[in-house]
UniProtKB/TrEMBL annotation:
<dbReference type="InterPro" id="IPR012340">
    <property type="entry name" value="NA-bd_OB-fold"/>
</dbReference>
<protein>
    <recommendedName>
        <fullName>Ribonuclease R</fullName>
        <ecNumber>3.1.13.1</ecNumber>
    </recommendedName>
</protein>
<keyword id="KW-0378">Hydrolase</keyword>
<dbReference type="Pfam" id="PF17876">
    <property type="entry name" value="CSD2"/>
</dbReference>
<keyword id="KW-0269">Exonuclease</keyword>
<keyword id="KW-0963">Cytoplasm</keyword>
<feature type="region of interest" description="Disordered">
    <location>
        <begin position="733"/>
        <end position="768"/>
    </location>
</feature>
<feature type="compositionally biased region" description="Basic residues">
    <location>
        <begin position="745"/>
        <end position="754"/>
    </location>
</feature>
<dbReference type="InterPro" id="IPR022966">
    <property type="entry name" value="RNase_II/R_CS"/>
</dbReference>
<dbReference type="InterPro" id="IPR003029">
    <property type="entry name" value="S1_domain"/>
</dbReference>
<feature type="domain" description="S1 motif">
    <location>
        <begin position="653"/>
        <end position="734"/>
    </location>
</feature>
<dbReference type="InterPro" id="IPR050180">
    <property type="entry name" value="RNR_Ribonuclease"/>
</dbReference>
<comment type="function">
    <text>3'-5' exoribonuclease that releases 5'-nucleoside monophosphates and is involved in maturation of structured RNAs.</text>
</comment>
<feature type="compositionally biased region" description="Basic and acidic residues">
    <location>
        <begin position="9"/>
        <end position="26"/>
    </location>
</feature>
<dbReference type="Pfam" id="PF00575">
    <property type="entry name" value="S1"/>
</dbReference>
<dbReference type="InterPro" id="IPR040476">
    <property type="entry name" value="CSD2"/>
</dbReference>
<comment type="similarity">
    <text>Belongs to the RNR ribonuclease family. RNase R subfamily.</text>
</comment>
């Protein structure tokens, strides 16, 4: 046993006085060597360790053997000539800043990490009085890292040495070969210019390839030039348009080999440690084209005489935690992706197909592991109690929304007929009860129809439809909401860490902006910080069926905060719920997997529960999955824009009915309701007056006439120009301006504000 040594100087683990007293036969313990390597990662070569402990002769041979043993045991790894603790960061590392903790301290992850478990968290230190740029969320930095002794905090602190410049000069484009043999880069971003590529900078690109290029400095004449950095794929293949969004938003879409290997090696879960629910006729109700099924439902009247008219609703969710354990390659990749991304022509899944479409998918007639919640409701729709169970289930039927609805409406088929009375009608009876509770709760009820793009086999647009909103959709939605609430209540009651789905109330600034806008329509909104969704619903109800219904719905939507994930609960404003957590879609959302693990740990439901290490990282994880959700939404929206633009590219000079979807100083954004696509009308192209922007009224009005255009107005437009791969369209306004609502006083106030603004920023609009 080595003697305990305290104090060190310049890398030596002992003070000068201590070294003088150490006998020649001193050999450090394994723990002392491991601690020295962790604390001195830049002086961890074999010679440096021997020097630090004053080892000579045979002791150096002993040290060599010990270090080899530590490597064989997996406690040390060797990089070049230096040794590091397994999974430890190098003393200088490239880090990605991903969020902040509760005190505002920046948190980072290593850009590359191959160690065991999940990547460590690094708290970024900013030196007082430091000159130069300060790093922020989303930056990549070079930093010195230092291990900490705080088991409850980040594993490391980091001192930033350099902030890497973002490769803003690298852009995506489509490589085109023109008839004369020259090369061009067709832009895929709306403000990106066309580029010329000289032959020596072609880099193997072929016509139709999606490429990453580096623009050169623009010459005084002609188009700017660029060189091809990398070929990312061919747009002549299927699913070409979504590939642009995948690369533009840096969405991981190829599973690493170790992730695929782990998924393929997974074995089906067994009944061991589970309740046997295979005789319960749970059914899945999903879109007709769904490939994975992660939720199943069942309901029955409550026979308890103390709860007359009550119901028992059961929701079973695929037990993904049975297959995805914390810190494994599958888990790290799932966290990296955060969620599945849904494009019209493909899905980029969070989990490999072996897991998402096979082992975890609640297939009809096949045994599948699930975590189920059984909820009892009163006749008024108030939840009385609930319980969670880890079960083995067998789906009695795979149904599509229209199919289930048709059965209830009196047109059952061969599959729904036999279960109509025993399964479907009790489900609808339970939904009627839950709906009473929803109506009493008064969540925010915005009327915003969703469009779906149907594609041809070649990946181009066939047509755009607005699917009918059926009671079958609403039933599943309400069952899932109640299951999510039950999960949040259980975990909070057990004081188990979790990630909440939170939605803040509109900020006071947004409330005031909305209030000013509603005043222009003769509507009022009560003041006060404690807003409730019911107050917005009252406004929406007053304009239902009116000409300005779409306008008010749009402005109310834009006044809302964005939902996100957080380990700190502030409630969900839109749903008007005090506690809410995503539990029902663990196949496609990492947040739900965390909640599943929390339930397993809190209720003692077996292996796969939330670990302390994972619980300590929830702040960081919440920031990551909130960011991946926003990334997915942006990529999905961009893809829809590109598909519709390509679809309409052959309809130049056609006229369309449109709705104004945005108003800015620069002009009007218009949406084609039939297609759900947006285009732009520059203010300089508006005829007949000099147009001024009124932010309060969301309008552009003529200085001379006071007439103009307002958000949500229905107008007629002509398509003038399309850039398909950029998803950009330019229109011409055909509709005449109209008198805007509001008093003459409001008009003059807006005019005065606009004049004051334009005295600083220059004129807008044009007069003809």
């Amino acid at each position: 046993m080595a003697r305990r040594i305290s104090g060190r100087s310049h890398g030596d683990p002992r003070s000068a006085d201590t070294r003088a007293k150490v006998k020649d036969d001193y050999r450090p313990s394994r723990d002392e060597i491991l601690r020295y390597i962790a604390e001195n990662p830049d002086r961890s070569g074999k010679r440096e360790i021997a020097k630090a402990f004053a080892l000579r002769g045979e002791d150096r041979i002993w040290l060599k053997d010990l270090l080899r043993d530590l490597q064989d045991e997996g406690l040390l790894t060797k990089e070049r000539k230096r040794l590091t603790r397994a999974g430890a960061l190098p003393h200088v590392a490239v880090l990605d800043i991903v969020g902040r903790d509760a005190d505002g301290v920046l948190l980072a992850n290593p850009s590359e990490y191959t160690g065991p478990g999940s990547p460590p968290v690094i708290a970024i230190r900013i030196s007082r009085g430091a000159s130069g740029p300060v790093p922020g969320i989303g930056d990549r930095v070079l930093a010195k890292t230092f291990p900490t002794d705080d088991p409850a905090g980040p594993a490391y602190t980091g001192r930033v040495m350099k902030i890497f410049e973002k490769r803003s000069e690298a852009v995506l484009g489509i490589f085109r070969v023109l008839k004369d043999g020259s090369f061009r880069i067709e832009p895929v971003e709306r403000r990106q210019p066309e580029l010329i590529v000289d032959k020596e900078f072609q880099n193997g690109a072929k016509n139709g390839d999606l490429v990453e290029v580096e623009p050169a400095r623009a010459s005084r004449y002609g188009l700017p030039r660029a060189k091809v950095l990398a070929v990312l794929g061919s747009l002549t293949s299927e699913k070409a348009v979504s590939m642009i969004a995948i690369h533009a938003h840096d969405i991981p879409h190829v599973f690493p080999a170790d992730v695929i290997a782990e998924a393929e090696a997974a074995k089906p879960a067994t009944l061991a440690g589970r309740e046997d629910w295979r005789d319960l006729p749970l059914v899945t109700i999903d879109p007709a084209d769904a490939k994975d099924h992660d939720d199943a439902v069942f309901a029955t009247p409550d026979t308890d005489e103390k709860n007359p008219g009550g119901v028992i609703a059961t929701v079973a969710i695929a037990d993904v935690a049975a297959y995805i354990r914390y810190g494994t390659p599958l888990d790290r990749e799932a966290l990296k992706r955060g969620n599945s991304v849904y494009f019209p022509d493909r899905v980029v899944p969070m989990l490999p197909e072996r897991i998402s479409n096979d082992l975890c998918s609640l297939r009809e007639g096949e045994d599948r592991p699930a975590i189920a919640v059984r909820m009892t409701f009163s006749a008024e729709g108030r939840k009385l109690r609930h319980s969670f169970h880890r079960v083995m289930m067998k789906s009695a039927a795979k149904l599509a929304y229209p199919q289930a609805q048709a059965a209830i409406d009196g047109v059952p088929d061969d599959k729904t007929g036999p279960i109509l009375d025993s399964v479907l009608k009790p489900l609808w009876d339970a939904y009627a009860v839950l709906k009473r509770g929803r109506n009493a709760r008064q969540p925010l009820e915005l009327d915003l129809p969703e469009r779906k793009i149907l594609l041809k086999p070649d990946g181009t647009v066939h047509r755009v439809v607005v699917p009918e909103r059926l009671d079958a959709h609403k039933l599943i939605e309400e069952f899932m909401i109640q299951a999510n609430v039950a999960a949040a209540e259980t975990l909070e009651g057990k004081k188990e860490p979790l990630v909440f789905r939170i939605h803040d109330a509109p900020s006071l600034a947004k409330q005031e902006s909305l209030r000013e806008f509603l005043q222009t329509l003769g509507l009022s909104l009560a003041r006060g910080a404690q807003m409730r969704p019911g107050q917005f619903n009252g406004i929406l109800e007053r304009v239902r069926g009116a000409d300005n219904e779409a306008l008010v719905n749009e402005v109310v939507l834009r006044s809302q905060s964005q939902a996100e994930y957080s380990p700190k609960n502030i409630g969900h404003f839109g749903l008007n719920l005090r506690r809410y957590a995503h539990f029902t879609s663990p196949i496609r959302r990492y947040a739900d997997l965390i909640v599943h693990r929390g339930l397993i740990a809190a209720l003692g439901l077996g292996p796969g529960g939330l670990t302390q290490q994972e619980a300590d990282r929830l702040e960081e994880v919440a920031a990551l999955i909130s960011a991946t959700e926003r990334r997915a939404m942006a990529a999905e929206r961009d893809t829809v824009d590109r598909l519709i633009a390509a679809y309409l590219a052959e309809r130049i000079n056609d006229t369309f009915d449109a709705r104004i979807s945005g108003v800015t100083k620069a002009g009007l954004f218009v949406q084609l309701p039939q297609y759900g696509a947006d285009g732009f009308i520059p203010v300089s192209s508006l005829d007949g007056d000099y147009y001024i922007y009124d932010e309060t009224a969301r309008s552009l009005f003529g200085e001379r006439t006071g007439k103009g255009y307002q958000l949500a107005d229905r107008v007629e437009v002509r398509l003038l120009e399309v850039a398909p791969m950029a998803g950009a369209m330019r229109f011409e306004m055909l509709s005449d301006p109209k008198p805007l609502p509001g008093s003459r006083r409001s008009f003059h106030k807006a005019k005065g504000r606009a004049r004051a603004s334009q005295s600083r920023s220059g004129p807008r609009g044009r007069r003809r």
